[in-house]
Amino acid sequence: xxxxxxxxxxVAMMMVASLAGCGSSSSSKETLVVGTNAAFPPFExxxxxxxxxxxxxxxxxxxxxxxxxxxxxxxxxFDSLVxxxxxKIDVAIAGMTVTEERQKTVDFSDPYYEAVQAVIVPKGSxxxxxxxxxxxxxxxxxxxxxxxxxxxxxxxxxxxxxxAIDAVNDLNNGRLDLVIVDKNPAAVFGTQYADQxxxxxxxxxxxxxxxxxxxxxxxxxxxxxxxxNAIAELKKDGTYDSLIxxxxxx
Length: 250
Ligand code: ARG
Fold this sequence. Notes:
Layout: H1 2-20, E1 30-36, E2 39-40, E3 44-46, E4 52-53, H2 55-67, E5 69-75, H3 81-84, E6 91-92, H4 100-103, E7 106-108, E8 113-115, E9 117-122, E10 137-141, H5 145-151, E11 157-161, H6 164-172, E12 178-182, H7 183-192, E13 197-200, E14 210-212, E15 215-217, H8 221-236, H9 239-247
Parallel strand pairs: 1-5, 1-6, 10-11, 10-12
Antiparallel strand pairs: 2-3, 3-4, 7-15, 8-14, 9-12, 9-13
Helix pairs in contact: 2-8, 2-9
């Protein structure tokens, strides 16, 4: 019995010793746990190796380097991101638009990208102006600005999906008249289903410009300042532009 206990203790000690020898766990750096929703190409998606990739993922990793923190990405539902900040995650980067409603719960970094909603329609659809959106069956991603816009459209029957691509699939199945989603993912889905859909620019419907920023814990001005400085430096040293060129075809 005694021997058994000793060997258990020995094994435990060896495990601790081997852990201490492993790269990242021996790092003295603090970890920044970053929430995202990796179903929003080209900003975040699951790469071929099964890990989150995309513009936002690359940007937050570059920010992590600048501020001396290890970045750990946590993929979750978009709709849970804001309420998880300060709990399961430290910050969120998810092509997230700055809105007054969200600002009641979180702070935002300086904006890093300007976007607008776009409309995806079946090829040959007659939808062309804001008036044409009325009384339509509209698909959106749950909790997004696309959903907030759709909810304001007269007579619209809005279906909210966990992933925008699920809305696009229902559009292709004939269950929806249109999908409202941010312009860059709309362009990606438009290319993916080029023989089935058309993408119409948000300007045709007078949709307003939106600004993506990193969502931060409310009141943490120290972290906000570090992240904002890092964004400014990455813009200055060319990293930001090279990430745009790598991930975003405009
Ligand atoms: N920009 C929109 C919003 O903030 C949609 C963002 C969706 N992002 C995502 N990773 N699924 O509501």
